[in-house]
Amino acid sequence: MSEELQMIVEDTEESMRKGISHLEVELTKIRAGKANPAMVDGINVDYYGSPTPITQVANITILDARTISIQPWEKNMLQAIEKAIMQANIGITPQSDGNQIRLFLPPLTEERRKELVKKASGEGENSKVAIRNIRRDAIEQIKKLGKDGLSEDAVKDGEKSVQEITDRYIVLVDKHLAAKEKDMMAV
Question: pLDDT averaged over the chain?
Fold first, then answer.
């Protein structure tokens, strides 16, 4: 395999690995009935005029399986954090006692579990689409190398390598989804 072809294959695998990492992050944001600090990741608070992640203005701890505690470092941030959580629409109403905010996760109904499984499946499908797009781009690059003088056998080998990597990552997406679905459907 030529050096350029090898680089294309390696870049393809690296891009697909990043796609899986992104999927893992997105799946942690979908709650499975258990409290998880990652549920508030991505929620930004107005901190003196600039949007700042909650994790940078407060301690986030898990009190028990269904309770997240958010303790702001500055007491005046309490309302801003509460407002940001409400606007994020994560399906949990924050409750403040003047010192900290508690998020009580209600038990999931069967219907809500099915909605969450659909949401997770949608994220999985997005990851699969991204992986297939990466494959398409890599195969286009390989074909371009073929037009620039790379042998036909090398082009076929490169395409085969890219397809094998793609298949492996698609299976990985399915495994992640199956694990998340099992986690969400467990009562």
Answer: 87
Q: Which of 46-50, 55-59, 106-110, 136-140 has the lowest mean pLDDT?
A: 106-110
- For the domain with range 37-104, which CATH number is right: 3.40.1190.20, 3.30.460.40, 3.30.1360.40, 3.50.50.60? 3.30.1360.40
In our burial notation (b when 16+ CB lie closer than 10 A, e otherwise), range 61-90 reads eeeeeeebbbebeeeebbebbbebbeebeb
Within the chain, what is the greatest distance between any pair of CA atoms? Answer: 71
C-alpha 169, offset from chain centre: 15
CB neighbourhood size of 136 (10 A): 12
Q: Which DSSP helix (H) or strand (E) runs through 127? A: helix 110-147
- d(C-alpha 101, C-alpha 105), whole Å: 13
- Superfamily of domain 3-29+109-185 in the CATH hierarchy: Ribosome-recycling factor (1.10.132.20)
d(CA 133, CA 101): 42
pLDDT tens string 166-185: 999 999 999 999 988 888 77
Strand 67-72 versus strand 101-104 pairing type: antiparallel
Q: What is the dihedral of CA 123, 129, 134, 135, to 10 degrees?
A: 130
